[in-house]
Amino acid sequence: MKKRALSFWEIWNMSFGFLGIQFGFALQGGFMSRIFQTLGADEHSIPLLWIAAPLTGLLVQPIIGYMSDRTWHSRLGRRRPYFLIGAILSSIALFFVPYSPALWIAAGFLWILDASINISMEPFRALVADKLTESQRTYGFVVQTLIIGIGTWIASNLPWMVSEMGISDSAASGVIPDSVKVAFAIGAFVFLISILYTIFTTSEYPPEDMEEFKREKAKKNQFIPDILNNIGNMPLTMKKLGVIQFFSWFAFFTMWSLANPALTEHVFNTPAPVQSIYDMTNVVQAEAFDVANTAFQKSSNLVGSAMGVYGLSSMVFALLLVLYTSKRNVNRKYVHMFSLMLGGLGFILMYFATPENLKWCFVLIGFSWGSILSMPYAMLSSSVDPNKMGMFMGIFNMFIVIPQIIAALGGINFVSSLLGEESINAMTVAGISLIIAGLCNLLITNKNAISYQPELSENNA
C-alpha cells in the first residue's frame, strides 16, 4: 500500500498523545524517588524500589507489540485500542500514587503505573512507522520528541507551580505533600485527554491484505516461538543500536532514581531527614524534623524544576530538527553520537554545580534526551520488516529495560561506590555511561539506518 506524505499537523495529531504519556513518565521519573524517601526509603534502597519500571517494560512491551500487530478494530484500528486501555489505567494509577500510606504500596503503584504507560507507549512508536513513508520517519520521530519535551518540562514543574499557587509543601512525617498530590491529579487528567485527542483525530491504514491478515490471526497463537525466533534473527543494526541503548538507559535510569537524593544533598545541602534520629516526642526535635523535611520538600521541587529543563532543551533540539528534517536528511549516527556526549558532560558537571547553575547541566542532558527519543527509532525503523514493526519495537525495548534492571539490582550502587561514598558519584557514573553510548554510535555502518537512502529504502538491514 502506497502511503501519502503527511502534513505537519497530521503528524502532530498522531503524536499528541505522547504529551500525556510524558506527563506520566516525567512525574514518575522526577518524583517517585521523592515519594519513596518521604515514606522512609534510604538512598541505597531506592534503585531496587525502581525495578518495577524496567521489569514491567520487559514483560509488557513485546506482548503489546505482538498483539497490536495482530489487531484490527473496525473503529479504533490497530494501535488505538491499546492507547485507550493504557490511558485509562495510567490515569487511575497516577491519581492514587501520592496517596500511598506505606512504602510497599507506593512500590506496587509504580508497577501498575509503569505497566499501564507501556501499554500506550509502544503502539505509539509503531504508529509512526505504520503511517509515515520512509523519507518522513526521522521527521515523525522528531515531532514526537518535540511533544515529549513539552510534556517533560511542564510535568516536571507541576509540583513547583502548584506550590507557588499556595498549595502546601509541608506534611506530617510519612505523608506526601498536597503540592505533589495536586500535580499528579493534573497529570492524570492530561494523560487521558491527550490520548483521546489522538484517538479522535488520527486514522490508521488497514492491513494490505485483509483476508491474509484474518487467516494469520486465526492461526494458533505462536507468541513465544515468534518472539524467540525474531530475537534470534534480529538485524545486525538492531543489535548495534542495542549496545548504544544499554549505556544510554543505564545513565537515565540512574538520573531518575538517584538525582533527587544526590542533588538535594550535594547541590542544595538539604538531604531527606531520617526520622529515626529524631525524638518525635520532644517538641524541639519534632519541630527540627519538620523544618528539615520542609526544606527537603522545597529543594525537591527545585530539583524537579531543574530536571524539567532537560525537557525544554530536548524540545528546542527537536524543534530545530523538525525544521531541518522537513526539507533535508540528517546523518542520524553523528547527531546521536554528539548529542549523547553532550548529555554525558552535563551529568559530570553536576559535581561542580550550584543551585543557580544546575539548570545548565540539564540543558546539555536535554540534547541527549531529545536524540534518544528519536534517532534510535528512526534508525531501527529503517532496518526491520515493516510487517513486524510492533513486535520489533517491543523487542527493542529489551535493550532499554535490561540496563535498568542491572542498575536497580545493585549495578549503580556498586559502580558509583568505586568513586567514593558521595551520593553525587551516581551522576558522574551516568555521565561516563552516556559518553560511552555516544562513542558506540561508531559501530553503526548501515547506510539506510544512518540516513534515508531512496535507492536502498526497500532493503532491510
Shape: globular
Oligomer: single chain
Radius of gyration, whole Å: 22 Å
Strand content: under 5%
Give me the number of helical elements: 19
* Largest sheet composition: none
Order of helices and strands: HHHHHHHHHHHHHHHHHHH
Q: Helix/strand-derived class?
A: mainly alpha
- Unreliable stretches, pLDDT < 50, 5 or more residues? 455-461
Number of strands: 0
Mean of residue pLDDT values: 84
Measured as a percent range, the helix fraction is over 70%
How far apart are the first and last residues' alpha carbons, in Å?
21 Å
Task: Please give a quick description of this structure.
With 461 residues, this protein is an all-alpha fold.
Folded structure, characterized:
This protein has 19 helices and no strands. The protein has helices at 8-15, 17-38, 46-49, 52-69, 80-96, 103-131, 137-164, 178-201, 210-218, 223-232, 236-266, 283-325, 332-349, 358-372, 375-381, 389-396, 398-417, 425-439, 447-450. With 461 residues, the protein is mostly helical. Helix 7 runs antiparallel to helix 15 (375-381), helix 11 packs antiparallel against helix 18 (425-439) and helix 17 packs across helix 18 (425-439). The longest helix is centred in the middle third of the chain and has 43 residues, at 283-325. 72% of the residues lie in helices and 0% in strands.
Tell me the layout of helices and strands.
Layout: H1 8-15, H2 17-38, H3 46-49, H4 52-69, H5 80-96, H6 103-131, H7 137-164, H8 178-201, H9 210-218, H10 223-232, H11 236-266, H12 283-325, H13 332-349, H14 358-372, H15 375-381, H16 389-396, H17 398-417, H18 425-439, H19 447-450
